[in-house]
Amino acid sequence: MRRIFSLLVLLCLTAVSPTAGQTPTEELERRIAAAEMSGDFDVLLSASSAARLLGYFSQADDLLERATLALDQVSNAWVTEMIFNALAAGEGVNGMQRALRSALQRIQMTPQQVASITNNFPSLLTGGEYDEMILAFREDHPDPDYRCPCLAEKAWVHRVAGRLHESRLLWGELVAAWDRNPLEFTNPDAQANWQGQYARNLARAGRRADAMAALEKAMSMPVSDDERPGVQRRWAQTYAELGDVEAAVELLEPLIASSTLVTVNSLSTRYTWEPVRGHIRFQEMLARNR
Fold it and tell me: Residue 139: is it exposed, middle or buried by C-beta count within 10 angstroms (0-12/13-18/19+)?
């Protein structure tokens, strides 16, 4: 896979790096203009090559940096999809961990990128394989790869390891930071999603009354039909954190039948449902939908 990945990059470079004199200036300028609002790796790489050929070396550097970021995003998406596939196939935590290890053998990821993956899939932290690396993060770390507060990532390490008090303290730090600088979005869907995450994280911090107030606000916010399943999953996560299995099941069961992230296998495996997974009502829901 590493060889294939390298060959793909080489092919991209070959395709978008014409010999000087072969491509009209107008075409090179068009490629640069096309990259202004693009986040696509191939568009950005083509524009960087065009800027280099035109002698715009500073602009070429900037475009190449953006292409590098786009390539990182593609890599993260690829790793995430590998883990999702293992999850969807019912391979459980072991399968998810195998998928991540396999991905890391093929592409290089920074510690923060790995931590971001484990933040999305805390079950990967089972067994403590990445604990030492993640707990080393701090804002003043001398190594830039470890220079990050990464509060949620560290909170999950403690929680999966059973250190609930330490986990709640870190979730508390995270929501306190959000309280100081609440996020405001012009997109109603993004705002509704953030409000759902805020309510859920308040619950993870042990601030039950605040979590319920935030959840009530979240559930009253407008959200489009397309985005509602994802936002509704946030609400269910909050109820799960609060131990309200009845409310969580009521929100989750309609999502299982549609094409969402909520499936029997995800509910059986993902760590976010751990607080209610053993409850008879939750297990009955899983049995009904197998």
Answer: exposed
Q: In the numeric block, which tokens belong to residue 124?
A: 């990967």
User: Whole-model pTM?
Assistant: 0.81
Is residue 168 within 8 Å of residue 205, measured between CB atoms? yes
Angle between helices 111-120 and 151-160 (to 10 degrees): 60
Give, in order, the Cα–Cα distances in Å from 47 to each of 40, 74, 148, 162, 233. 11, 18, 32, 50, 40
Alpha helices for 181-244 (secondary structure H):
188-204, 208-219, 228-241
- Tokens representing 41 are 């790796």
Task: Find residue 101's DSSP bridge partners.
Answer: none
The model's pLDDT over 97-117, given as tens digits with 9 standing for 90+, comes to 999 999 999 988 999 999 999
Residues 109 and 120: beta-carbon distance below 8 Å: no
Contacts 24+ apart (CB under 8 A), 32-36: 32/56, 32/59, 32/63, 35/63, 35/66
**C-alpha to C-alpha distance for 199 and 232, rounded to whole angstroms:** 12
The answer to whether 92 and 124 are in contact (CB under 8 A) is no
Q: Which residues touch 153 (CB under 8 Å, ≥6 apart)?
A: 115, 116, 118, 119, 134, 137
Residues 251 and 232: their CA atoms lie apart, in Å, by: 7
**Encoded tokens for 240:** 């799960």
Burial 89-114 (b: 16+ CB within 10 A, else e): eebebebbbebbeebeeebebebbbb
Cα separation, 243 vs 247, in Å, equals 9
- Is pLDDT at 20 greater than 60 in this prediction? no
Token duo for residue 233 = 């999953």
Residue 138, SS3 per DSSP: strand
Q: Are 70 and 44 in contact (CB under 8 A)?
A: yes
